[in-house]
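Deliverable D5.2: sample structural annotation.
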Amino acid sequence: MDSSPSFHRRAPDDPSDSPENMVVPDHALPHISFRTPSHGTGTSGAGSSTGSMAGENPTTLHPAMHLSTITPPQPVEPHEMMTPDPNARYIHGDQVHQDCIPKENMVFATEEEGYAFYMQYARAAGFGSKKHKNKAMSRVYACSRQGSSEFYKEAEKRKRGKMSKRIGCMASVKLKLRGKEWFYERVELEHNHTLNPDPCEVKHMRSHKNKHPVMMDYVDGLQHSGVSPNATVNVLTELHGDYGHMLMNARDLENRRAANLRKEQVDDVKKLVTFFNECRAQNPKFYSDIDYDSEGVVKNIFWSHASCQANYAEFKDVVTFDTTYRSNFYRMPLGMFVGSNHHLQNVIFGFALVGDETEETFEWVFRTFQRCMEGKDPICILTDQDQAMANAIRRVFLETIHRLCRWHMLNKHTVELNKLYYLHKGLEEKLLTAVNHPLTPLEFENAWKEMVTEHGLQNDPTLRGLYEHRASWIAAYFKGIFCGTMTSTQRSESTNRMVKRYHVDKSTPLHMFARRMYQMLQRRKDDEGLETVYSQDPPDTKTNYHLEHQLGRIYTRAVFKKYQDAYFAATSFRTKNCSQHLSIPI
């Protein structure tokens, strides 16, 4: 017997719910409920089979089918579905006050008053306007959609998908001079296109954008100060009370900024030289030099303000130098000579914009820096592991100790060191301890030897390479000189990062870049003054030792905090008796 399941269509519980039995009132849209039948129950078994009834359409229903309520869309008025009549005419609505509607023979004292009145009417009515004709005795102001576009010839391929808005609208007014006054001789208010009186639509019309000189100067000031486009929109929104009241949009602000940038980039080098001359007029100690190539194109630029040179005279013990990209319009790498002052703050000694990073370029920068500082070389200079830079330093700074950045030395071998850390448990801790904590070169040598022997890494190429350059980057070999707690080029890199984040970007022209750097120096000088005032407060001492009170009066606040941290760390040492008696000379 056939054991296949049979499916039956289930009749609705209430016949009145079916569409056939629904009564719809005239001119009303009913709430229609379409009932989807439930799936049938399949039965199977020996000796019975249920087939479809005669006259029915057997339907196989999915179990996911359920009762659904479908609400029809709102009705659309017939006139909204019709194609607009090309011969239709449109005029202003009731939102325009009668006193604001242009009329023939209206008199104005000046031409500007007549134009301003028509502009006010156009804004209220919702269409753009333009100055169409300008004759000796008359002026014609028309709708911006007057005339037709002739930019593209017939059968010419269009380069842009945007079509012209000019469709031959005849709405206009004619202002004519009569004696000493002006009057509307002809007024045509009908348009052949719909009007857009909504303020959110009017603000996008070119003739109604608010370009008041005071407002534009304010916007230029915000953009000149590096305020982001979104922040500028927020400020203008607050001034206007609401975004809808702002008679310009975000695209207008972006276009304004792009136009200002193009204007600033004209005669960029000439403007840069002018700024340097202004700085030199204010202080004769200002120093600058520009290197040109054989074709007269700027190759390298160096400058240093008088305050930078004064800081170098006080804090020239250690200098870091590093370059960074994407800090100006020409993508010239920025190099800065950075040091540390008595508040442990970054101080800048000089700026350099270089055309490339070759040995010849670095030598020019270092020699220019040397001339600027009257031949006084730094005691120690910290750089990354750049061979061209190292060669230039050896030729220029003959008495200067060249120290390599510890972070760059280890970061260069990150992949290889991570593999060693994974294979040899405890190696990372011992390596960092040997690099950072030994007090003398002998202690470092013993710690390194013990480490490689324990893990059997005497012939590992990565560790051998680090060990061969130990005298150039291990702190134990620089105990005889003052490095201002600096072991890497982090001060230069942090200053470069701050410059790119808060002061300049890749669109900044050279003369604006130099001005922004001067502003940054002023802000850093202000920070130094604030720290000087705070350092005059009585220090918070931790002990009753007279030495701590004395150092609290001598040291700055930042240095005294370093002393307290070191003193606290010294209490972690434990003492024990030795078998031998040591005689300590006094």
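Annotation notes: Residues 510-535 form the longest helix (26 residues). Residues 262 and 435 are 51 Å apart (CA to CA).
The annotation will be released with the project's public dataset once the embargo ends.
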